[in-house]
Specification:
heterodimer; A: 124 residues; alpha+beta; mini-chromosome maintenance (MCM) complex, domain 2; 3-stranded antiparallel sheet; 17% helix; B: 177 residues; Arp2/3 complex 21 kDa subunit ARPC3; 69% helix; globular
Amino acid sequence: MRWLAYLRPGDWLVIAAGAVVVALTLPLLWQGGFAERAIIRQDGRIFAEIDLASRREVAVPGPLGATLVAIEPGRARVVADPGPRQYCVRQGWLARPGEIAICAPNHVSVQISGRVRAYDSLSY
Amino acid sequence: MTASVTELTITAEDRRVAWLATAAVALSLVDAAIPSPLPGVKPGLANIVTLVVLIRYGWATAVWVSGLRVLAGSLLLGYFLAPGFFLALIGTTFSLLTLGLARHLPGRWFGPVSLSILAAFAHIGGQLLLARLWLIPHNGVFLLTPVFAAAALVFGTINGLIAARLLAEIPAAEPAS
């Protein structure tokens, strides 16, 4: 390789050091782990905890009617909700741990969780 | 023609800085035309000029060329004083400071590629810092650090190699313009 002639010994060292820095920052990409489960809550109580492995739909009854939640491998979303503003529906697919869609009028929420539980909030 | 009242003497150094800055601005425009998958990930071709200038003409000239490049480049691309301008400015400042230190490394061992990689990491480090402190005050900014760091390593190496080749092919006696 003609181009390799331009590299001096220390340059290899710097390239290696750069690669180490990149490797050290890699875990940031998977912060919070992978999406593994969807936790569906109704009125604050856990209605269902579903493994994000299968493909299914869940109807969650609330004061306004049924909220329809779709589960797919690695992601989940609210498909339909009787609420007036449809915020949780428009949020679309949830795929990262900690993501949550709240259908407040119907008292339903869908949250994604990973293997390790990420803190939502801390107080001390 | 009426003689001008104010006399500006233009030195050879001024002309050289102007030419080199022009080359750097042209490369900035090429850079901006290359589609990027993620804002912030781009080759930074203009840094090739900075490296060549640093090694040929010293740090002060490199500062001039880079500063003019950021200013003129932002005016031409229309982001002068927009957030992108300050990101470019802080990145350039950080990499120039790093280059100022790194150029004292023994030249036998550390060539343009080392300088280029170090400058690229300083560049992205400064930008992430500014983005975290000012534009997006949330740690989520750092989620994409691995992507930026990898880009800095890859493009830093490539730019360094190009600069090394230019330095080898352009004889030292001739101005690089």
